[in-house]
Amino acid sequence: MSQEIIILFSIIIIVIFLFALEVFPVDKIAFFIMVSLLLAGFISPEEAISGFSSPATITVLALMIIAIGLENNGVIDWLANGMKKLKGLPLLLMVPVFMFIAGSISAFINTTAVVLVFVKIIDELSDKYDIPESKLLLPISFAGIIGGSCTLMGTSTNLIVNAVAIERGVERFSFFEFTWLGVIFLVITIVTVSILIGFLPRKRKSDISTDYDLDEFITKGIINKNSRLIGKNINEIFGSEAEDIEVIRLKRKGIVNDHPGKYTTMKEGDQLLLRCSIEQLIKLKDSGDIVIIKNSDKKSDELFEGNPDILEDDIQLVEILMLPNSPLIGKSIKTVGWYDLHGASPLAIRKRRNLRNPGRRIFDKQSDDIELRVGDRLLVEVTNSDLLELQKMDDITILKQHHDINITTRYKRNISLGILLLVIGLSAFSIFPILKSALIGCFLMIFLKCIDLGKIYSQVNWQIIFLLAGMIPLGVAMANTGADQWISENLLKLFDNKSNFMVIGLLFLVTMFLSGFISNNATAIIIAPIAITIAASLNQDPKPFILAVLFASNFSFFTPVGYQTNTIIYGMGIYRFRHFFLIGGILSIVLWITASFLLSGQL
After folding, report:
1. What is the DSSP letter of 170?
2. Partner residues linked to 351 by β-bridges
3. Cα dist. 390→161, 273, 345, 387, 560 in Å?
4. Which positions ≥6 away from 186 have C-beta within 8 Å?
C-alpha cells in the first residue's frame, strides 16, 4: 500500500466519523473533503470542483426543483389525501395499504416530501380516530425508502450510481430497468414490516406539556381601573419572580408591543399576555390587580364594551420540525425572534436524537447557546391569525396541521402533475436522458409559473447539492491514487474460488452496513467505483454489481441516522433506537439474502 493510499484512506475514515457523529453539517464536510484532497495533491483544482458540473448533481438539482413545484402546488397533498378515506380499515390492513401507496408515490417524487405529508395525515388521523401513529410512521418511512429505489429518478443515490457507471464506461440505466427488483423488495418490505408491527410501541396521545416538561400556563390579563400596578414598571412588579412569570406581549390602545422592556410602565386597560407557573397564576387571580381572561371569558367584553380594541386571538402551542435549508438552522432559541417566526414566540427546543445525543434533550429560553439543527423540534406559541403566516414558511413543517391553506389552484396542480408525467415519459421511453428530461421539466415549471425563482433559491436543499459536489471528487481521487484498484485486488483474493452469490452478498452487506451510519449518497460514491473494478477483474457484467451498491446504499433500515426520513421519524420521540435495530435489522437481513440471490442470478 502506497503512502498516497494510506493518506486517502485516513481522509475517508475521518469523513465517515464526521458523517456518523454529525460533528458538522454535511455541506461543511463536503468542503473539507474537497480541500483535503486538493491539499494532498490527489486531485487538480478542476477536478476538485468537477462535482458542481457533474450530470448527477445537476440532475438532482433539477428534480428537486420539480419536486418543490409539485409540493407547492398541492400535488403531493392531493395524492396522499385519499388516505384519509382508509380510516375505517383494521390496522393489519391499514399498514400494508399505507406502505404500498407511500412507496408507489416515492418512486417518482422526493421521498422526504412524501413522508412529511404522510406524517401530517397520520397525525390528523391519530387525533380524530385514535389510530396509533406509532404503528404507521416507521413502516411508511421504510416504504418510502424502498419506493425511491424503484426508478432512476426515485432518489439521488440512483442518479449518482448511474453517473459513476457512465463515467466508468458502463452503459447507462434506463428509467425502469431495475424497477422489477424494486417492486419485489417493496413487497417483501410490506410483508415483513406488517408481520413485525407488534414490536412497535403503541404510543399514547402526545401531551405537549409532558413532552417539553412544561409546567407553565399562557394566560391573558387586563390591568383594571383600581389596580395597584398602575404606574409601576414590569421590573417592579415581576422582577423578583422573573423565572416564574414573563410578560410576553403588551397591547395598549391597539398598539402591540411584542418585546415589552422591564421598565415599561403599566397603565389602566393594558392587555398583557403572560407566561407563568400555576402558583403565580393563583396569586395573580387572588390579587385582583389583574383580571385574568380565559379564551372563552366574556369579562373582556364587559370591561371594554364598545371598544374595538379587543384581546389577542386564542393562543396555542405548535411544534415546528426543522427541515434542511431552513433559515432557522444555526440560530438559538434566544436569537429566533418574532420576525423569524411571523409573530410566533419560541418556548423550547427539543433536540433530535443522534449518535452523540441518544437521549431526549429539552432546552428552554435560558439555554441561549443551543443551536437549531435539521430534525430538531421547536415549540412555539402563536395566535390563530399568525399561525396562517407561520404555515407558509419555507423549509419547516408544522407537525400539528391546524388549518388547511389553499395556496394554489387546481389548474396549477394539474399542470405540475402533467410536467412530472412528461419528465417520466421522456426518460422512460428513452426519448431523452434523465438529465435532459429533468431540465425540460424545470423550464416548464418556471415558464408556466408553477414555481418562481425565489421559491427555488429558498427551498432547494443546498446541503445535498454541496454534499454531492464534494463527494464526487473523492471518487476521482480513488482512481488517481489507485486506491480503488488496490481495494479490488485485495477483495479478489478474498473472493477467490467464491461463488457469485457470495461475492454479490458480501458487497451488498458491506455497502448496506456503511449506509446505516453515513449518508447513502456518500456510501454510493465510495463503493460504486470499487464494485465496477471488481466486476471488471472478474470478467463479469458490471450491472449486477452496480445494482448491489445502488440498492444496498438505499437500504438504511437498522439505524435511524443513515436516511433522512428515518432521522425525522426518530426525532419525533415515538421510537427508540432498538425499534430500528430490531425491525430494520430483520428487514435488512431478509432483503440482503433476497438481493444476493436475485442479483447473482443475473451473472
Report:
1. P
2. 361
3. 38, 19, 11, 5, 28
4. 100, 103, 143, 146, 147, 150
Residue among 116, 119, 112, 115 nearest 102 (CA)? 115
Q: What is the pLDDT of residues 80-138, one digit of tens each?
A: 667 767 777 888 888 999 999 989 988 988 787 788 778 777 877 776 677 788 888 89
Q: How far is CA 466 from CA 25, 64, 173, 294, in A?
A: 11, 14, 24, 50
Q: How many percent of the chain have pLDDT more than 70?
A: 80
Question: In this predicted structure, what is the pLDDT of residue 16?
Answer: 75
CA neighbor of 173 nearest in space, from 187, 153, 156: 153
Distance CA(114)–CA(144), nearest Å, equals: 8
DSSP 219: E
Categorise residue 213: left if φ over 0, alpha if ψ from -120 to 50, beta otherwise: left
pLDDT of 278 reads 57
Contact by Cβ (8 Å): 466, 4: no
Give DSSP secondary structure letters for 517-579: TS-HHHHHHHHHHHHHHHHHHTT--HHHHHHHHHHHHH---SSSSSSHHHHHHHHTTS--HHH
Q: Looking at residue 301, what is its pLDDT? A: 40
Q: Where are the beta strands (DSSP E) in 186-305?
A: 216-223, 245-252, 255-257, 271-277, 290-293
Give the integer Cα–Cα distance in Å for 397 and 560: 19
Do 601 and 594 contact (CB within 8 A), yes or no? Answer: no
Q: How far apart are CA 574 and CA 138, in angstroms?
A: 10
- The C-alpha cell at 371 is 443551536
CA distance linking residue 485 with residue 482, whole number of Å:
5
Give the amino acid at 122. Answer: I
Q: What is the pLDDT of residue 260?
A: 81
C-alpha–C-alpha distance, residues 260 and 175, integer Å: 59
Q: What share of the chain is helix, strand, coil (3-state, %, to 5)?
A: 55, 10, 35
Please give the average per-residue pLDDT across 38-67, as a whole number: 87
pTM of the predicted structure, to 2 decimals: 0.68
Q: Take residue 272 and report the three cell numbers written for it.
A: 398583557
Residues in a beta bridge with 290? 223
Predicted confidence (pLDDT) at residue 401 exceeds the cutoff of 50: no
Helical spans, DSSP H, in 152-256: 156-167, 179-196, 208-211, 234-238
Q: What is the pLDDT of residue 59?
A: 86
**Cross-strand partners of 249:** 273
Q: How far apart, in whole angstroms, are the C-alpha atoms of residue 601 and residue 557?
A: 25
Cα distance from N-terminal residue to C-terminal residue, the chain: 31
pLDDT tens digits, 332-366: 766 776 567 777 777 667 765 554 554 444 444 44
The C-alpha atoms of residue 177 and residue 162 are separated, in whole angstroms, by 12
pLDDT tens per residue across span 300-312: 444 333 343 434 4
CA 595 to chain centre: 28
Task: Note the maximum CA span of the chain.
Answer: 95
The lowest-confidence range among 5-9, 148-152, 266-270, 276-280 is: 276-280
Place of cell 416564574: 244
Beta bridge partners of 277: 216
Residue type, 416: S
Kindly state the cell numbers that stand for 83.
388516505
